[in-house]
Every structure is written in C-alpha cells, then in structure tokens.
Amino acid sequence: QVQLVESGGGVAQAGGSLRLSCAASGSAFSTSAMGWFRQAPGKEREFVAAISAHGGSTHYINSVKGRFTISRDNAKNTVYLQMNSLKPEDTAVYYCAGRRFLTISPASGDYVYWGQGTQVTVSS
After folding, report:
1. What is the band of 50 on the pLDDT scale with cuts at 50, 70, 90?
2. E-strand stretches of the chain
3. Which pLDDT does position 26 carry in this prediction?
4. Bridge partners, residue 37, by sequence
C-alpha cells in the first residue's frame, strides 16, 4: 500500500500562488499515475489534475488549465501541484491520489491510494 501525505495548503489572496506537495511512502509510487482532486463545502469531490507514472502525460480540468501545473519527482517520491493565479472558487480541500496503472484517469473511482487532504483557502 502507498501512503500519501499532502502539505502546502493555506490561505492565499486572489491572484496569488501556492504549491501543494504530496509525499508518498511505498515502492509502488514510481509505477502509479497520480492525481489531485478537490472538494468544496457542500460540493462533490472533483478531478483537478493527473500525471502519468513517468511524468510524460498530464491532464487538467478546464477551469485550471493555464493556471495549475502538476509535476512529480520519482526520486523523491513526491508529486506537486503548482497553483498560480488563484481564484476564490479554487477554495477547497485538496486530495492527492494514486492508482495501480501507469496512465492517467480523471475518475476518482480509478484511484486506490488517497491522502488526508489539505485545505486551500483563497480570499478576495
């Protein structure tokens, strides 16, 4: 089992930036595609971004394209989400997740490893 721990959340002003990190323990990280999901109060959890196991392919929800960048460093067993030009609607708990495939998926049901979540609050 891969254990995931998110960090880097906090409060930012609209237009600001945050970088989320997800540290993984377990030997399966380098063969697991990784994703970021978020859940706002009273809303369903939604897909944000994903990256293939070796970092060669990425996918983003339309609302964050051009603003967020997902990346990974397999030597450090870490995946990142760089969030720029933040908007109040980005406010949510952000979750790191992994799946037992090399390729990406936007479906939360395809992920079997989940972190505890980190709060991101964007104020105007």
Report:
1. very high
2. 3-7, 10-13, 18-25, 34-39, 46-51, 58-60, 68-73, 78-83, 92-98, 113-114, 118-123
3. 82
4. 47, 95
Predicted pLDDT of residue 44: 96
SS3 content of the chain, % helix, strand, coil (to 5): 10, 50, 45
Amino acid 117: pLDDT = 97
| Residue 74 phi, psi dihedral angles, 5° rounding | -65, -25
- To 5 degrees, how large is the angle CA 34–CA 40–CA 43? 100
pLDDT tens-digit readout, 59-97: 999 999 999 999 999 999 999 999 999 999 999 999 999
What's the pLDDT at 27? Answer: 84
Computed over every residue of the chain, the mean pLDDT equals 96
Please report, as a single letter, which amino acid is at residue 122: V
Question: Residue type for 76, please?
Answer: K
Residue 14: C-alpha distances to residues 1, 21, 37, 64, 87 (Å): 37, 20, 20, 14, 5
